[in-house]
Design brief:
This protein is α/β, with parallel strands linked by helices. It folds into 4 domains: 8-67, DNA Methylphosphotriester Repair Domain (3-Layer(aba) Sandwich), CATH 3.40.10.10; 76-166, Homeodomain-like (Arc Repressor Mutant, subunit A); 184-255, 2-Layer Sandwich (Double Stranded RNA Binding Domain); 264-350, Winged helix-like DNA-binding domain superfamily/Winged helix DNA-binding domain (Arc Repressor Mutant, subunit A), CATH 1.10.10.10. It contains 16 helices and 8 strands.
Length: 366
C-alpha cells in the first residue's frame, strides 16, 4: 500500500489496534528506540511524537532504523507462510477439503479455518468459490463458450455453477457472455429531488439506478437486452426505489431486490458497501481492509466505479482519506447531498465546492 492510500492518523490507529490485516502494508518506525515494527507488533505502544510510518522495511532502514526482533517485520511469519501455501494449493488444485489444507499446513482444521479467514477475509471454501467464479468471468470475457468456461474453471457441471451462484450473481453466465441477450429489462425515468433518475429492473430485481441518464445509456449497458418501459407491474418497485433515494438513511433499500452482475471481486466490494451504515463513511483503504486485503484500495476504487446501482449499493459512502467527498459518477453535489441526508457529520464532507481528494475517483459506471 502506498503512502497516499492511508493517512498517518489512520496508520496510527491501526498500530494502536495492532491490526494484523495491515502487516505488510507499512511499518511503524519508532525513532526514540531506533527500531521499526509491523502494525501488529505486541510491544507497548510508543509515544505518538516518536513515530513515523514507512511504506517498506527498506525505507525504514534508509532512515537509520533496525528491525524489531519481537515481531520480525522483514520476515514472513509461519502463519503467513501457511496461508500463502494454502492459497497456492487452492489455485493449483481447485477446491480442497479443509482437512487436506490443514494437513498441508500442519494446523488443526479449526485453527486453520480461523487463521485463513482472519488473513484473507474469506473462508477457504468461499475463497475457492470466488476463484472459480472469477475464472468463469475471465474465460467468458475472452470468448469461451459457457460450457467451456465452467469446466475450465473447475465446476463439475453447469448445474453446480448455477447452484453456487444463484441469488448472488443475479444474471447468469450466459447473460454475462452475450450482453443480456434474451433478457427483458423494464425501465423508467423518475423525477426526484436530486434530479431525474433512471431506474431499471429485470424480473429478479433492480439492475440499474443512475442520475441524468435515459434509455440510450441503459441500452449501452445492456446492448442485447430487450428494453421495455416499466408498467403497472413495476410501479410499486420503482416507488420503493424512489423512496429509498429520497431518504437514504432509512432501511427501505435493504428489502429492495437487486439483479447485479460483476466479477467475484466486484461482488465482494459491492456486498461490503452495503454493510456500511447510513451516516458513516469509509476510505478506499478501509473498504479494502473490510475485504481482508488492505493493499487493494486501487482495485476497490475501480470496482466501485463499475457499480451500476447508485444509492442502493452505496458507493457514495466511500470518501478520500485526505478529506472532501471525492469523485462520483453523477457529480459531487449529489454525493454530498446523499451524505447530508444520511447524517454524515464531517464538516469537510458537507462543505460546498468540488472537493476531490487523492483517492481513486468513482468513475462513470460501465
Amino acid at each position: 500500500m502506498t503512502n497516499t492510500e492511508l493517512s498517518d492518523e489512520e496508520r496510527w490507529q491501526i498500530a494502536l489496534a495492532k491490526d494484523r490485516r495491515f502487516d505488510g502494508a507499512f511499518v511503524t518506525g519508532v525513532h526514540s528506540t531506533g527500531i521499526y515494527c509491523r502494525p501488529s507488533c505486541p510491544a507497548r505502544a510508543p509515544h505518538r511524537k516518536n513515530v513515523r510510518f514507512y511504506a517498506t522495511p527498506a525505507e525504514a532502514e534508509a532512515a537509520g532504523l533496525r528491525a524489531c526482533k519481537r515481531c520480525s517485520p522483514k520476515t514472513q511469519s509461519a502463519e503467513e507462510a501457511c496461508v500463502l501455501a494454502a492459497i497456492a494449493a487452492i489455485r493449483a488444485d481447485g477446491a480442497m477439503t479443509l482437512e487436506a489444507l490443514s494437513e498441508l499446513t500442519g494446523y488443526s482444521p479449526t485453527h486453520f479455518q480461523r487463521l485463513f479467514t482472519r488473513t484473507v477475509g474469506l473462508s477457504p471454501a468461499a475463497f475457492a468459490r470466488a476463484l472459480r467464479e472469477e475464472r468463469v468471468r475471465e474465460a467468458l470475457a475472452e470468448g469461451s463458450s459457457v460450457t467451456e468456461a465452467l469446466y475450465a474453471a473447475g465446476y463439475s457441471s453447469p448445474s453446480r455453477f448455477y447452484a453456487e451462484t444463484k441469488g448472488r450473481l443475479g444474471m447468469t453466465a450466459s447473460d454475462w457472455s452475450n450482453g443480456g441477450e434474451g433478457r427483458v429489462i423494464y425501465w423508467s425515468v423518475v423525477p426526484t429531488s436530486l434530479g431525474e433518475m433512471l431506474v431499471a429492473a429485470t424480473d429478479i430485481g433492480v439492475c440499474c439506478l443512475s442520475f441524468g441518464e435515459g434509455e440510450a445509456e441503459l441500452q449501452a449497458r445492456f446492448p442485447k437486452a430487450e428494453l421495455r418501459e416499466g408498467g403497472g407491474a413495476f410501479a410499486a418497485l420503482f416507488a420503493r426505489v424512489t423512496a429509498a433515494v429520497e431518504d437514504p438513511a432509512s432501511s427501505i433499500s435493504a428489502d429492495i431486490p437487486l439483479d447485479v452482475k460483476g466479477t467475484a471481486f466486484q461482488q465482494k466490494c459491492w456486498e461490503a458497501l452495503r454493510t456500511i451504515p447510513p451516516g458513516e463513511t469509509r476510505s478506499y483503504g478501509e473498504q479494502a481492509a473490510m475485504l481482508g486485503n488492505p493493499n487493494a484500495s486501487r482495485a476497490v476504487g475501480s470496482a466501485n466505479g463499475a457499480n451500476k446501482i447508485a444509492v442502493l449499493i452505496p458507493c457514495h459512502r466511500v470518501v478520500p482519506a485526505s478529506g472532501g467527498v471525492g469523485g462520483y459518477a453523477y457529480g459531487p453535489e449529489i454525493k454530498r447531498e446523499l451524505l447530508r441526508r444520511e447524517g454524515a457529520g464531517r464538516a469537510d464532507l458537507l462543505a460546498s465546492g468540488d472537493l476531490f481528494g487523492d483517492e481513486p475517483p468513482h468513475g462513470k459506471p460501465r
